[in-house]
Amino acid sequence: MKAAFLIGLRQIEIREAPAPRLEGQREVLLRINTVGVCGSDMHYYTRGRIGAQVVQYPFIVGHECAATVVEAGGEVRSLRAGQRVAVDPLVACGQCDQCRGGRRHTCRNQRFLGCPGQIAGALAEYLVLPADCCTPVPDSLDDDQATVVEPLSIGVYAAQMAQLAPGARVGIVGSGPIGLCTLLAIRAQVRAAIYVTDLLDERLAVARACGADWTGNPRREDVVAAIRRLAPLGLDVVFDCAGEQEALDQGVELLEPGGALLVVGIPEVNRVSFDINLLRRYELRILNVRRQNECVAPAIDLVASGRADVRPLVTHHFRLEETPQAFELVSARRDGVLKAIIRISPEEQVRGPESEVRSQKAKDC
Ligand SMILES: [Zn+2]
Ligand SMILES: [Zn+2]
Questions:
Q1: Which ligand does the CA of 61 lie closest to?
Q2: Model pLDDT, residue 349
Q3: Which ranges of the chain have pLDDT less than 50?
Q4: Cis omega before residue 58 (within 30°)?
Q5: Distance in Å, CA 103 to ligand 2 centroid
Q6: Among the bound ligands, the one closest to the CA of 339
Q7: In terms of Cα–Cα distance, which of 358, 250, 298, 256 is closest to 86?
Q8: The pLDDT value given to residue 347
Q9: Nearest-ligand number for the alpha carbon of 50
Q10: 29 partner at 20 to 30 Å CA-CA among 53, 247, 262, 269?
């Protein structure tokens, strides 16, 4: 099969690799249809690591994917060949204290798709995964939507963790795909005033299209002062979806006493700092969001029911052979890119004329 291998910093090569074989009774062989390029893939691409997770070359990254079941192991009851699925990239052991306590996402023996030293990623034609990782999607979802289910599940989980009350004042610092998925999830969940910031104006335009009440660019204005004018008491919750020191500082400064900063973004550095006097005096809470927990099915529901429209997030399409261009584009944040989707297998003709028009457009990119 063909796969896209990371072979060095900012170097990707399409190579032939042996196709994986179905071995376990509870596994499925998947044909990968589409893969979304994620910010975390960018860390591996440009720096070769996230924290202690260091890439050993050659390595296949990619974990946001939509797939079709080719073959299911003997004990798999939930899936059958031909079914389209959204993939949860986390493989948990199911045995440890965390798994038993309902925290599969912090499983002590976890392996993650496209994570160095764990499982080779999805930028390949075929993949074998436990059936538990796959949730069927209705035919009304196209492959792009099924691909964005994974980042949307992170937004759903972050919104859930924030326990927002109706009328909450909410900040989202960073309007990339994860910030926008968080915005869509909050919008679908509760009535709230949502303030969104980003350094790129085109991302703010998409945030407004996704339901932000106010947007601001810290390159052009003091966003903390501007939001303070609109919400003088401060915000209940701020989601950091940027992972930069400056963004974390802004997040803390925007909070009301007793408010919470949810750290969803992945900082490039191993250490960040907080103004301990602010945190202490106002009893601010810092909550960390580790991907998501059991939020794939709710995310599929949000998309299928039309309560979350993820389509404005998908800005670019590429073929597997064009993976290097896709990664360069996302890394440079050029051309208004938000979610770039790489098509691995030809699109199945199961959907209506609207998606055909879209896939036609995709070929033009
Ligand atoms: Zn991701
Ligand atoms: Zn476990």
A1: 1
A2: 52
A3: 350-365
A4: yes
A5: 8
A6: 1
A7: 298
A8: 81
A9: 1
A10: 53
What H or E segment, with its residue span, contains residue 87? strand 84-87
> Which pLDDT does position 350 carry in this prediction?
46
Which-ligand-closest: CA of 88?
Answer: 1
CA of 118 to the centre of ligand 2 (A): 14
pLDDT of residue 359: 42
Contacts of residue 261, Cβ cutoff 8 Å, sequence gap at least 6: 237, 238, 240, 248, 251, 252, 255, 284, 285, 286, 287
Could you tell me the distance, in angstroms and rounded to a whole number, from the CA of residue 94 to the centre of ligand 2?
Answer: 5
User: Rounded distance, CA 295 to CA 152, Å?
Assistant: 9
H helices of 210-352, where?
223-230, 245-254, 276-281, 296-304, 323-332
* Structure confidence at residue 270 (pLDDT): 87
**Gap between the Cα atoms of 179 and 184, Å rounded:** 9
Q: How far is the CA of 293 from the centre of ligand 2 (A)?
A: 13
Q: Which ligand is nearest to the CA of 112?
A: 1
pLDDT 10s digits, 278-324: 999 999 999 999 999 999 999 999 999 999 999 999 999 999 999 99
